[in-house]
Structure formats: structure tokens, C-alpha cells
Write a structure and sequence with these properties.
With 111 residues, this protein is mainly β. Helix content is 0%, strand content 65%. The chain has no helices and 10 strands. Strands 1, 2, 3, 4, 5, 6, 7, 8, 9 and 10 form a 10-stranded antiparallel beta sheet that branches. The radius of gyration is 13 Å and the shape is globular. The two termini are 13 Å apart.
């Protein structure tokens, strides 16, 4: 079974938004792996202010095991690891990304 589409994530407590925010995200599922890609943007700024906090919740499927991905700022010159702990629907950040207009993220995890 292969499926893909848009999904509506929830911005987590680990993200600081100034201004009006929006989130774009899509997913692709095949062979017990789900890949999610997207971005969080704001009219003023968005940041990941503290490490190891929830960045995104409401993944399209529950993670069956720990998995690693990445996030970067709008200028693509600051990158950090992101991860989903086993048996959750959350993405957590492993480091800070300072204020920017957009944070991009990508992660593949087992389901």
C-alpha cells in the first residue's frame, strides 16, 4: 500500500511564533515507512527556542521506533537534527534555530 497527501500538523510548544503562523506539510507512506516534509512560517518570525521540545505534533501515523530527520531556517544556513521518539506522533528538535521567517523540516520514520 502506498499513499501520500497533505496533513495538518500542530505547532508544538518548542516553537516560538511572532505574528500569524501557517504550516504546510505533506507525507508519503510506503513499505512501513512514512516521510514527512513541510515548513512552519510566520508573518514576523518563527524559532525553535529550546532543545528537546516538541516542534510538531499530530504526525499522520504513530512512530514505531526512534527516527532522525533535519530542520533548517529560511536561509538554509542553520540546520539541526529533529527526531521522533518511539510510539509517539511528535517531532522534537535537538537544538535551537534562531528567529527566521520559515523553518523547513523533513523526517522519515517507521510505522
Amino acid at each position: 500500500l502506498t499513499q501520500s497527501g497533505a496533513w495538518t500538523p500542530t505547532i508544538g510548544a518548542g516553537v516560538t511564533v511572532v505574528g500569524t503562523s501557517s504550516v504546510y506539510a505533506n507525507y508519503s507512506y510506503s513499505a512501513n515507512l512514512c516521510t514527512v516534509n513541510g515548513y512552519i512560517q510566520s508573518t514576523t518570525s518563527v524559532a525553535m527556542a529550546a532543545a528537546n521540545t516538541v516542534m510538531i505534533s499530530n504526525l499522520p501515523f504513530t512512530s514505531a521506533a526512534d527516527a532522525l530527520g533535519s530542520a533548517t531556517n529560511a536561509g538554509r544556513n542553520a540546520i539541526t537534527g529533529i527526531y521522533t521518539p518511539s510510539v509517539t506522533t511528535n517531532i522534537q528538535n535537538s537544538a535551537v534555530i534562531g528567529a527566521t521567517s520559515r523553518i523547513y523540516f523533513s523526517l522519515t520514520y517507521p510505522i
